[in-house]
Amino acid sequence: PSGLSLYFEDGHDDLDDFGFDDYGSECDGIRITAFLDAGQDNLTPLGRLEKYAFSENVFNRQIVARGLLDVLREFSDNENDFISVMETVVRMSEDAEPTVRAELMEQVPNIAMFLHENRPNFPAAFSRYLVPIVVRYLTDPNNQVRKTSQAALLVLLEQGLICKADMEGKICPVLLELTEPSSDDDYKIEAVAIMCKLVTMLNKDTVELLLLLRFCELCSDARLFQVRKVCAANFGEFCSIVGQDATEKLLMPKFFDLCSDSLWGIRKACAECFMVVSNCTSPEVRRTKLSPLFINLISDQSRWVRQAAFQSLGRFISTFANPSSTGVRFQEDETLHGITKSTEKNEHKGSCSDASSDRFPGSSASPGKSKKFSDTVIKPSQASEDPNHSRVPSSVKSHTTDGKLGQPDSLTTTQDQQTGDFFDSFHYWRPLLPDISQDLELLQGEGKDEVQRQEMVKEEETVPDLDSEGPATSSQIQKVLECLQPHLDDPDVQAQVQVLSAALKAAQLENSRFLYKISFNTFIKVTLISVLHIPHVSHFSLSSFLPSFLQNVIPQQLLDQYLSMTDPVRAQTVDTEIAKHCAFSLPGVALTLGRQNWHCLKDTYETLATDVQWKVRRTLAFSIHELAVILGDQLTAADLVPIFNGFLKDLDEVRIGVLKHLYDFLKLLHVEKRREYLYQLQEFMVTDNSRNWRFRYELAEQLILIIDLYSHYDVYDYLRQIALSLCSDKVSDVRWISYKLVVEILQKLYSCGAHDLSLNFINELVVRFCHCPKWVGRQAFAFICQAIVEEDCMPMDQFAQHLLPCLLSLSSDPVPNVRVLVAKALRHSVLEKRKTFSVHFEAKYSPKKTHFSIILPL
């Protein structure tokens, strides 16, 4: 009632004069600054602004606050008037009515952007007038005003409108004050949320100087779990900003405490940001500290924590990846490519270089050729011969004065000469190999028992001659397996036999191009010594010598947990969609392990590919092309092609994943294998739902790319029929993209010199489109002709002889839509290249020039 009395007492006539009676909750379309117009009070515009900005009527003040941006536009030309308006804004910010303050704060980002674009002295004016308002409202007693100011602050930071001095001198001190232990709970919770969002917009030095220590204190807030939860949810952002050193020294202890917090919501938030935290730590911390911590989260008593942990498991494993060991890298366009020294001119042929040949720094292997490990790493002299390398990798440097285990004597001296100190993935990811050279000397010494010596000689006689350098072959591994057969009673030998069996399969699959990270003769000696139960060396594990066979890239527990995600029990106890999360992260896990460890994931991938949930299969279908890049052409042909073929016959929801990246997958296959899919492309024309026109549209787009993968004969025999069928589709978008496909096919034929096939195709286009009884077909012919000229698909003499007469004949088509498109084709394409027409043709068809004078005015 008091508000109503004020409303009517405050000059009802004036409200009628300035249209305030028309304002309401839906007044966005009305000019809010109407109150500045001349009325009965004879006041200046600034006087009227002052009158209504401080009116006793709350509604009037709200209208002024809502229209401040328009007011500034009205007075921005005059400097004195602009300053007066800004001072009025500052006074209005002290209004006692919360709704007025909230309305004013909502306009601050828009006002700041206007000042930034139109005022030369924007930084000073913004810092002087508006920033203090935003900072003061962060501590406003009204909840709506505080929320509005927080949102406005974030917008200003995202737009980069607040200078560094204001952030450090005005905003951060307020946030530090609000996060004091004695601060109000509501203020503290809100301030922590702002701080965590603010940190992503500040530089490293500012965060470390002002906010890092306070954030560490808040992570240990024992009274407010909301504060700890916000800190846990944004922990990764702080780690990303401050870097590795501060993360490991200051933040890691707090992260361990949060991961063991009594509230499951906080532990769940830690699991969700685990990947970001892991990216900010060293490999040693990631392996020795974070991995056990993550295993605890996976085994958490809360189902929601376990669910979040399993969803983040694949992403966490991906942080162990290293391009030097995986053999692939990400380009700037976020696509995977093999690491090679040569140019990528032949990528469309689908030959993915073997990762093992490029896994080590300094390798100069060329695509398609396998380099021995001893050539790429052990022998620095060969590496230095490469003109692109002035130094040799550190992997050849000896770590002990006596030489490393398994190094031939002929190479020890060479290694000792190496002084470089570079990164080497072999030593980087794995613990140093134990030095058992003294034990070997004892075994080969003169003081051994005669019986034991005879047994050693007897066993060594059965060992194949493997002293020659180079990668092990299938026959060599097979001989070693035969030597181990008498010792199968020993569990250690059984495990080693399993490893060698996997290695044999991999060697056969790679056609003896599987490169080992240690020389094979050393491996044989160590293996036989270990299986003969020699006391000095029997405790050494074969896995430390066989990183190519047993994966040692990530902790085995993490891999075991990841492989268990396909277990049906997990779907019941953790998450019904856990298999989908496993499928989603599988390419990242495969990239981390590398193609040499594909055998660890093969069974899991096949299980996911046959999962009963189509969403799981769909996820795999969308990523199978990326996995093919990771595995290389050999493993792709052996393991992925059968699954790819199964996806082709699956539901449309699954087939669309294959179709969207059909070109990316086919280009990785050999030519013979690629040609097999020519017969199956027609099957994409059939869908479960005929209304699914986007499926056919995607097919046309992929065919435009696929043309480059096949010969002109295959294009003419197979792709031409599909393209013409798509040109007759019921949906306009499918037809228009298909016309571009037709143009690409014609260009392919002419570029390959197939003039007879090109002429046959042109005649088919003329019959099908130019003489089409439907105007849509004739219009399509005009579009095709225009595209042919613009793309230079064929010589202009050929165009003038075979297509231009038909195009000109459509200039008198009875349908205006056809004539318009013909006019566009002639005006924008044909006429610009008319000088290239032969003189003979212009003389022969000179009467046709009259068509131009008719069509061009259209």
Topology overview:
Blueprint: H1 2-9, H2 12-18, H3 45-53, H4 58-66, H5 68-75, H6 79-92, H7 98-118, H8 122-137, H9 143-158, H10 164-178, H11 185-198, H12 204-219, H13 225-233, H14 235-259, H15 264-272, H16 274-279, H17 283-298, H18 303-318, H19 323-326, E1 328-330, E2 336-338, H20 373-378, H21 380-384, H22 409-416, H23 425-429, H24 437-444, H25 450-461, H26 474-484, H27 491-509, H28 520-531, H29 556-563, H30 568-573, H31 578-593, H32 602-609, H33 614-648, H34 652-660, H35 662-666, H36 671-675, H37 693-706, H38 712-727, H39 732-751, H40 755-770, H41 775-790, H42 796-802, H43 804-809, H44 816-830, H45 839-844, H46 850-855
Antiparallel strand pairs: 1-2
Helix pairs in contact: 3-6, 4-7, 5-6, 7-8, 7-9, 8-10, 10-11, 10-12, 11-13, 12-14, 13-14, 13-15, 14-15, 15-18, 18-29, 18-31, 26-27, 31-33, 32-33, 33-34, 34-37, 37-39, 38-39, 39-41, 40-41, 41-44
Domain Phosphatase 2A Regulatory Subunit A helical: 88-318
Region (Disordered): 338-417
Keywords: Repeat
Q: Mean pLDDT, rounded to whole units?
A: 74
Give a short account of the largest sheet.
2 strands, antiparallel
- Given helix and strand content, the structural type is mainly alpha
H/I helix tally: 46
Strand order of the largest sheet: 1-2
GO cellular component, one term: cytoplasm
Region (Disordered): 338-417
Protein name: Phosphatase 2A Regulatory Subunit A helical domain-containing protein
Domain Phosphatase 2A Regulatory Subunit A helical: 88-318
